Amino acid sequence: MRAPIGDFGTATPAPDCLEELTDPVADAVRHWGGSVPADRILYVETDPQWADTAVFVEHYGRDLLEKSANCVVVAGKRGGDTTLAACVVLSTTRVDVNGVVRRQLGARKASFAAMDTAVGETGMEYGGITPIGLPAAWPVLVDSAVVDLPWVLVGSGLRRGKLLVPGKAFAGLPGAVVLEGLGV
């Protein structure tokens, strides 16, 4: 099938290529319960050498810059407690960690989680973390601009592939909270 965005060879419905995904992402697709059917989540194979955003859009389509989202893991701290969460924002913006995220998590301090923590807790590769398949207890903070897009390119859990996801699907993820101004 042809990908709805970008210049990819083919796009495969995620339920048809679970072996290409990390275990947490494959399990999330296998047990999908969102309002958007799981077969509307598409997998595209990409070359990890082109994973950096600037190089990626040069190779797979300049229009992808405005249709891509980053998923970053943050840690909110209050007293001795730490809350891990994911933030999903358009790749043309940055996460408002010290404002929106800190307030949403009720934290005194918020920062990006250490790479080892992000990788260890998600079971995904750094640079490929996706909001699909994150630990169920985590808040998934999603910028409203992501939900408004017809299609969004996001990580697949690995650096060698991406997912093309209808924007409204992000609002239905476990723990999802859609926020205005998360990406600035």
UniProtKB/TrEMBL annotation:
<dbReference type="GO" id="GO:0002161">
    <property type="term" value="F:aminoacyl-tRNA deacylase activity"/>
</dbReference>
<dbReference type="InterPro" id="IPR036754">
    <property type="entry name" value="YbaK/aa-tRNA-synt-asso_dom_sf"/>
</dbReference>
<feature type="domain" description="YbaK/aminoacyl-tRNA synthetase-associated">
    <location>
        <begin position="64"/>
        <end position="163"/>
    </location>
</feature>
<dbReference type="Pfam" id="PF04073">
    <property type="entry name" value="tRNA_edit"/>
</dbReference>
<protein>
    <recommendedName>
        <fullName>YbaK/aminoacyl-tRNA synthetase-associated domain-containing protein</fullName>
    </recommendedName>
</protein>
<dbReference type="InterPro" id="IPR007214">
    <property type="entry name" value="YbaK/aa-tRNA-synth-assoc-dom"/>
</dbReference>
